[in-house]
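Reviewer 2 asked us to include a model.

Predict the structure of this chain.
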Amino acid sequence: MPLPVSLPCRVPPEVDLLILSFLGHFAWELLQASLFASLSQTEHFAGIVICLKATLGDLAIALAAFWCAAVVGKSRNWIADTGVAALAVFFAVGILATIGLEYLHTEVTDRWAYDGVMPTLPILGTGLSPILQWLFVPVFVLWYMRRLTPRTSDQGHDPR
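Predicted model (structure tokens):
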């Protein structure tokens, strides 16, 4: 008599979001480090710690954007069943938070500064790399999460 096979329990979508976002944002932070003046004279290990702290901030932005999109999408499973509105909210929250935090930390608190090679957006003065980061990394993360997340309409149906 064959033993029944049970499928493993799914982790909350926030866990997938945080793991995938960590991988993408930490890699991006390390790659863009040379575009920040404050990192050019920093020792290697200290620079990694700074990039890790920045990544934790990116994860907070990603989580806030996810939850805002979940409100609009009316489900924490919005990635699988979403329309354009939840996606638009997700990216809008992420980009607006990035612009606001970049402004705060480069213009108000002087926590970091752009190197002369950092391209900046006209009028806003926000670095192009942080904006591109909040476009490219979340696109990859959401694409992969969509592959991991079963659609609500598919649940309960036997695929045989």
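The first helix runs from residue 13 to 32. The two ends are 20 Å apart (CA to CA). We have added this to the supplementary material.
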